[in-house]
Design brief:
Six copies of one chain form a homohexamer. Chain A contains eleven helices and nine strands. The first copy, chain A, is of the alpha/beta class and 330 residues long. Chain A has a single domain (7-319), classed as Alpha/Beta hydrolase fold, catalytic domain (Rossmann fold). The longest helix of chain A is centred in the middle third of the chain and has 17 residues, at 155-171. Chains A, B, C, D, E, F: Residues 2-319 form the Acetyl xylan esterase domain.
Chain lengths: 330, 330, 330, 330, 330, 330
């Protein structure tokens, strides 16, 4: 059943954005600090037992130079640098094992999967990246409220900073064509992709499926399921921090990143999604500044969205914008 | 939490089997009928947009010559015939799209995914194979009770017959080494793999994860979750058919197939599995006649079992018994 | 709590109907085919141990001449032909046992209960009628999506065709007055009754309680409970068949049958019904063409609707239109 | 799934009974008081719109002479006095409407349905009998703990006293053969039937389906579902009344009534019953003193037990012991 | 998530009230009858093992002179009469033990906690007051429908009458300043406080948190959780009593009491409250006649509302209106 | 219903303990490090608006000298130093507001409530103490798995170290008698109390209600509810860390602390507790070395245990061992 407004209403929904005055300064400082602390990524060959895929266990300098893990998967047979999909992961999971991520390399792309710091201990995929030095302030379950009273210490500041660094890391990988980087992800991964796309220039594409981390105020009014429910729990308990919390979240709202995106964007949304309600996704989509944007609507799906069907849409969409090219594989 | 006995008890659990006298005759007739009706498989190249994988849309003669669909995935770069994993699918899902099945070809194996007839309309993956001409007798939700009052018309007679035919189909595929066929699957797929392995000679290996379709009497006493719950619902309603139903199921119980397996077997089981309770899996494992058998126990997992970790176990286990070989890929 | 709009809104809800151009041809062909294949019904006396009721185990020619079972219950003491209630059954159940159906014969009516083909294996009542020769196409749990991609093979084509045949069978029963036939049922039974009433002339009345099978598009938007949820599951999985599915359902939507009903109609609806949302029922009611129609609203009930209280309403309503008559019993 | 021990263990389960020393005195005083206060029952013809059944709205003197309602249903065509089934009702429901109770009269028996005082406001059937002058002591939801600290004021003292009076009322109805009275009921009705049978001589039979009100101590240890859960809630809150409560319940435990039953008894039990766990039913059955007793086991059913199938068993069983007789109907 | 309208809509919600013509007469008679039957309260010192609090076990004449229990807690060190908070209790609980109620005496107020008759057997706190002589009419679980067909016998007539008597009792306690009485409570306690405040003159304040017992018609349309759900169950079953029930409830609706309140009022409401939906609370608040009224909105809370944060609000609010005073403690 | 073994079995349950060889060294180092880093506690008067209670907002040096907050509540009227209850808090909550903690001061004791670092953002009470510098390793929801792969970085190392420091802080508070310190808590608070009591000499008493953090291996086998379920989720995901996790937990298991306790101990346990299964509590109790120990069994309670009834038990028990004394208050 529908979990939010009907499609006609969603198509017209353009809420006002709330953005802190120093939004750009905040992020310039954050990404600048990360860039300053960066060190060369380590790519160690990893024996995943896979015949067609070359796998590297990647460690790169993330936020504030803190090490972040990832997997780099390359089609073993290739010629010349490849376009690269930098993928961010859904809530709760980590990078798992290389064979959890076979799609984009099979399609001929280089594929860099970024571990999400601190996650990967109660989802379907394990993670290998700690989130060192969080504030340790009282928090609800999960990660959405970790450090939420202070933009500088908020968890997603570090994650989004990692995400920018992941793209910059990809750009320096010899097997990757730095002019053809796509950011991608579903749910939390989609929210991170929007953030990265709002903070970075020169991306070749953005693939954001049923993105999380958008339009927090409406989200907690509309759902208590999934990670938005963690924010609800926090506000339920710490009644005196409501304004402070939403002030922090203003620096992290996908609507504000969307308004800065200029790369081509393909979003997907599901009308029966209780985890990331469609009004929050449409709000982000409508604020997206990209001249080349499209949204795929899955009317009868929940948070799984289009799943493999959406992969097909993405292959087609990317094929027109960021093709693997004749020289992509041999 | 544990959903069945503790591990020590499970390790000692060897229940008596109940087997109809004509079990072997029944299956000889079934597979003979299918073989007699067989026609050459059709392998049509399929453009899945994948650079490293060659994909064929397969249609082969299943039970009684009825067409069954599948995907054949081959590493695009290879030399010589490959060992082949014939995979059966979990309950409710169908063959989906080729990019749902990238693991075994990435590992260098030929991979034939058999669609499960009639399924794939309410799971995570769509299916493309009808189940023509079922008896249409009253049935509970799902497939477990379709035709369950008559062994000859029971749904899994057709499915298991398809499964045997899938192996025979694989043996005739030019790119496949017919002496190195492995049957594999999880949940329903694991139960089908056990059945196929009990009905076929000359298999190189059997990979059965948290298998379904074993030890029905105990299953319905221990759980009402998942597909075993459908059997419970049936017996709850049709109180006068209990004996008849269990008589039919005697022809389809994984315990009876296990007792006939001689190929190397790797089973996995999860102690917190409510869908396929571990006592039913251990019962099958303990009855397995194979001289080379092992079981991987996941003590803190539910029906997801070992997931990617189990894939690693399988790669290692197969690597010793059915290696891709130096010539497997180029 | 209310599960749909408030009553005022419901009273004004008159959505447009979507009807295939060949709707009438489709059904004329279907019922014509059934009539052509018909053979004389078999009525075998059945010893149900009941003193006041004469019971017959009925087998009649249903869709395409396929045998359909039913119970005929007659008050043992009677004089002359009786008006007859032809009753269709709720989802999941079959005809059960004769003593599950004592109301209408106790009230002095002949009562023909039609088994629903394929059902009766996981509800409260068992069934005895197979649904031979379905397409076997992949389907979700239950019956609502059995063959849903093809109007000609869709499950409810056979059921509605059976339903018409049941009335025609009743008209030929010697103890029945063929001019005083009423069709009746609750939930699925109500939906079937509306269909039969839309396809048949000369009925003396229609009793449809909380009818199912009406206004499918809204139903799946409003609820995921009960059988409409099966349709939702199907569309969730088979994302590329949405248009095809709703095209098929256009031939089976209660709104389209209601628009053809001319017999007197008594509908009931419950405002807290999550299984058959009241907007779908009001939509059917408002499209009903009958000059003599009424709707009973149960404001605080769920899918149970008026239950025994609705029986009283029906007895009164029928008493004015299809009385048993002085000669009905002796 | 099983909700209690497996059948083998249940078959051997014979727990000790706990019975207050003055059990018989307590009940002799109770029934004596009721008998002393009795006044002639009122039987008012009731127009239920039923052709084959003669219905009376009964008001009889129950506990302490308080009025209790009921329905008397008689087959309209009969000759001579009939054997009579006195039926008690399941928890939460009242006597409803006459057409809710058509089975026994259709089978040729007189049928007296006793309303359960105070109940019938949140179940499927309404009730018409107040429970005047309860102690009003704090109680959990429902009726199981109404007055539970004092045997003299406990709710079921009044109900069981009503139940005895219902049989005595039936014995004086002219159309009833007073030597052929059967008490019957399911769930709470079954528990009341056991109590009435333990308190009355000369009954022709006892039909108790999945009886409630047996072996309270085990019940609250085994289940928190249904009405036993109300007792659990009470003990959870009023921690200092545990002994007092179980002392009271000693006067009302079906085990103690069963030990006094001498009439023929047919019990049914369901092994997947969470409401009335099978160990509590077997405990009562094993303590039953009747020389002619039997138990029907429904291995795959929950609290619905055998439903219509159990009715068939009961018709057969009664047919041998309390037949309607050739003269029963005309 | 929001369980009712958004705040803007709630702020504007002023539904019409439905009030019986003899509302004032009804309550004048009720309170007059109670006053006439009153006898002097008994205050027995109670050893709760508390050093700073003097505790009395109170028994006062409630409705119709029936004894009602309570606790009186006084700060042990005090000088002169104290302002007194008369507190009513949430649904299901009773007065519990004195150390369950330490807040107001610690704040320097005298504190009289009134037991709720009949309750305290399945909540978190036990109760000690029976509800003698209810009508015993069929009722749903709980207390909301006890006697609901008759205003004179309805449960809350007795409870509200007790509540008025509790204030009158407090006014006669020597340690209490009769001019400074505040009524207070949360949920049911808040509803009782509104009723008491509508029936009594001269109160110094009213504290009603997330009050229950307001705007019944909307409540049952909006929620089926908690005690309003009991009313829904009743109406679901006893379909023919809907008008009668709402007529009774007209005498007990918080909206009608609110319209008579002149004392200062502080209400609190929670926007995610499923038990007492905010529209029902705002409706009462908007009808409140008090010139000095305020409402505290907890936007992210459920039925727990502001909890300890609301206590702080109340201390501040009372501090300005009913201060303990310099002489309050020594 | 029972959630674990019956009481007889529990009474006999004495599982082997698993203790790392360097358990004592580990804790000596931990507490030594904390002692070395300690600085004088700050006690700031706090205006909680309470007349009878003197409140201080406490900040003391916890683990590694990190600041930990707490409330000190003292009866305002007292003479001489008081015995002091040091209380630890249940899972998820923080110290809340002073008026959440009125019991022990009302009983005449000094009362130091220790905030639990990092908690208090999604429970019923807010917290004010961050958990600075955790490892940030991937973790499941909540706190039970924070840093669980490394004893030195595990969350409860810091918490238990805080707990020892809280007692040492209390001993230096002028209004407290350092020879009469009692540690107390329920659930997590009970587990912390056992740990503190195992690490400290000279305590006057230990009050542990339904303690958490005991016998982890059994806990995850028996329950998936509450915080033990977080451990289950972790092990479910990070399958390769099972041994490492249980090795860490060996340093934190209440069984090992219990074996070191010599102070008088009063434990409580609830037989229907799904959160802290009774077998885990009895295991701790049976290993407790104290010569003066007792356990209160609440047979019909869940995790709420004895609640206010247990407070009464504690007052009595403490009254004999750590009385407030005649001079305790004036």
């Amino acid at each position: 059943m529908l979990t939010d407004w009907p499609l006609d209403t969603l198509r017209d929904y353009r809420p006002a954005r709330t953005e802190p005055d120093d939004f750009d300064d905040f992020w310039a400082a954050t990404t600048g600090e990360a860039a300053a602390a960066a060190w060369p990524a380590r790519l160690e060959p990893y024996d995943a037992g896979l015949a067609t895929v070359e796998v590297y266990d990647v460690t790169f300098a993330g936020h504030a130079g803190q090490p972040v893990r990832g997997w780099l998967l390359l089609p073993r047979h290739r010629s010349g640098p490849l376009p690269c999909v930098v993928e961010y992961i859904g809530y709760g999971s980590g990078r798992g094992l290389p064979h959890d991520w076979l799609f984009w390399s099979a399609a001929g792309y280089a594929h860099l999967v970024m571990d999400t710091r601190g996650q990967g201990a109660a989802g379907s995929l394990t993670g290998d990246t700690p989130d060192p030095d969080p504030s340790g302030a009282p928090q609800a379950n999960g990660f959405l409220t970790r450090g939420v009273t202070d933009p500088a210490r908020y968890y997603y500041r570090r994650v989004f900073s990692d995400a920018v660094r992941a793209v910059e890391t990809a750009r320096l990988i010899p097997q990757v064509d730095p002019t053809r980087i796509v950011v991608a992800g579903g749910s939390q991964g989609g929210g991170i992709a929007l953030a990265a796309a709002g903070l970075l220039d020169g991306l070749a594409g953005v693939l954001a499926d049923v993105p999380f981390l958008c339009h927090f105020r409406r989200a907690v009014d509309v759902t208590d399921a999934g990670p938005y429910g963690e924010l609800g729990s926090y506000l339920q308990t710490r009644r005196d921090e409501v304004d402070q919390v939403f002030h922090t979240l203003g620096y992290f709202d996908g609507l504000n990143f969307a308004a800065r995106i200029t790369a081509p964007v393909l979003v997907s949304v599901a009308l029966m999604d209780r985890i990331c309600p469609p009004s929050t996704v449409f709000a982000a989509y409508h604020h997206c500044s990209s001249a080349d944007k499209d949204i795929v609507v899955w009317p009868y799906n929940g948070h799984e969205g289009g799943a493999a069907f959406q992969r097909v849409e993405q292959l087609r969409w990317l094929g027109k914008r960021v093709p693997v090219g004749a020289s992509g594989t041999s």
